[in-house]
Design brief:
Number of domains: 1
Number of strands: 19
Strand order of the largest sheet: 1-15-5-14-11-2-10-6-9
CATH class: Alpha Beta
Mean pLDDT: 85
Low-confidence stretches: 7-47, 245-257
Structural class: alpha/beta
CATH architecture: 3-Layer(aba) Sandwich
Radius of gyration: 22 Å
Oligomer: single chain
Helix content: 25-40%
CATH topology: Alkaline Phosphatase, subunit A
Length: about 475
């Protein structure tokens, strides 16, 4: 039975010798391995409540550009055509719950999914609204496009928080983003994708890759052909000898931290378990095809392999394709909304998302893996003259499944045209509080910025109605 909740809580120096040992490479070793492991703060809070800490890991599917609520989770079949569009809703596995017609696979799985239909930022800029969704804290100022990333006082992203609070398994990164960062036209990277005031040691590992490529291999895990494992060990020993003889003055905190990262990088290179986690060739062809052979589909499959191997949080970003235009890329459908959804967006999303939920359930992993489906905002209720929908942060939908979330739930609702919240408004801080709760972190857990000032993980309220 479909449960609709209509009321309740509302709900990221320098060292003299670092030129020859820089963070983007292991120049001395002839390798190309980013500094992917960092120091983490340990100590998860005690468990409270049935859903608290149920999720051992989290997969965030981030649909860059802003997916439309009308054609996905919140169709308005009785609205005028200029509102509802030419795509019709379809019945789902739950009586009373309709979804967009281009989500047939997902429609069969809604008993595993909880939908938030009244998420709101009131921010119509990709960068600043995205920052809020990715960190749980609003960007200052709001409604700023192309906001600069990397400010030292930026709030840490979800992955950075998880990396700091949940120790990794020693061989794999605790948090990872793939297959690339989120960026606006012009190559402008969004803020809210790094560790902010926690410092670079808490940055999630960015893995820029195309897992759908026939010869896909994570560059960081491949040894040059001329380098045997013995030579690798020889070069590690050389590094240790050089470091032992560095002047004490030069061995400041940054270099010590970098040394730690390179040593952990070597450990990863030598770890069969880590290398296997990234090896999609170990998956049966039928499984790979079930996810779809697109870059997004194979990235989602890789995310499943990584959480299965022990990674705590993997964020999979929707990426641009060669067919995308600068004025209408990814989910940013300012024109030809219906055509873009039919041909380029909804089929691969529906395929990969449904495959992930099914695969996790079949493997007994869904109950301990939180899956979050979201974008930075939604799309305007009224279709514009170009047949598109424009930016809309006033109300949009987010879906959660697994990891302590009860399926078959709808929390909140929008008005008759899908333009504003009608009930059960949720803000990004409530979403982040809920994610942290499922992962076993209390929202009021204290973290400290670079100046040692105490701050709390989230100022939101856990959405208890879906747990």
């Amino acid at each position: 039975m479909l449960t609709i909740h209509d009321s309740g809580a509302r709900l990221c120096d320098g060292v003299t010798r670092r030129e020859w040992l820089r963070a983007g490479s292991l120049g001395l070793f002839g390798l190309s391995l980013p500094a992917l492991f960092h120091q983490r703060a340990a100590g998860a809070p005690a468990s409270v409540g049935q859903a608290f800490g149920k999720a051992k890991s989290c997969i965030v599917l981030f649909l860059m550009g802003g997916p439309p609520q009308h054609e996905t989770w919140d169709p308005k079949p009785d609205a005028p055509v200029e509102i509802r569009g030419d795509l019709r809703p379809i019945a789902s596995a739950l009586p009373g719950l309709q979804v967009g017609e281009l989500m047939p696979r997902t429609a069969r799985l809604v008993r595993q999914i909880s939908v938030l239909r009244a998420v709101s930022t009131n921010d119509n800029a990709h960068s600043s609204s995205g920052y809020w969704m990715l960190t749980g804290y609003p960007h200052q100022p709001t409604n700023v496009e192309n906001a600069k990333p990397g400010a030292p006082n930026d709030w840490p992203c979800l992955g950075a928080i998880v990396k700091r609070l949940r120790p990794g398994n020693g061989m794999l990164p605790a948090a990872l983003t793939l297959p690339e960062h989120i960026w606006n036209t012009g190559g402008i990277t969004w803020p809210g994708q790094n560790a902010g005031f926690l410092g670079r040691t808490a940055d999630p590992w960015l893995m820029t890759c195309d897992p759908s490529a026939p010869d896909f291999q994570v560059p960081e895990l491949g040894l040059p052909r001329e380098m045997s494992p013995l030579r690798l060990q020889d070069r590690r020993s050389l590094l240790e000898q050089v470091n032992r003889h560095l002047d004490a003055v030069e061995r400041n905190n940054s270099l010590a931290r970098f040394d730690n990262q390179t040593h952990q990088a070597f450990d990863l290179l030598r770890s069969p378990r880590a290398r296997q986690a990234f090896n999609l060739q170990l998956e049966p062809t039928a499984v790979r095809e079930r996810y779809g052979m697109s870059r997004f589909g194979q990235s989602v499959l890789l995310a499943r392999r990584l959480v299965e191997a022990g990674v705590s949080l993997v964020q999979v970003n929707w990426t641009r394709t060669k067919e995308d235009r600068d004025t209408n890329p990814v989910w940013d459908t300012h024109s030809d909304n219906s055509k873009r959804l039919r041909t380029a967006l909804m089929p691969p999303m529906d395929q990969a998302y449904s495959a992930l939920l099914t695969d996790l359930a079949d493997r007994g992993l869904l109950e301990e893996t939180l899956v979050v489906w979201m974008g930075e905002f939604g799309r305007s209720p009224r279709i514009n003259q170009a047949g598109g929908r424009d930016h809309w942060g006033h109300v949009f939908s987010v879906a959660l499944a697994g990891g302590g979330v009860r399926g078959g739930q709808v929390y909140g609702g929008s008005d008759r045209i899908g333009g504003h919240p009608k009930e059960g408004r949720v803000q990004p801080q409530d979403l982040s509080a809920t994610i942290f709760h499922c992962l076993g972190f209390l929202a009021d857990t204290e973290i400290r910025d670079s100046l040692g000032r105490p701050l709390v993980l989230s100022r939101g309220e856990v959405i208890k109605q879906i747990l």
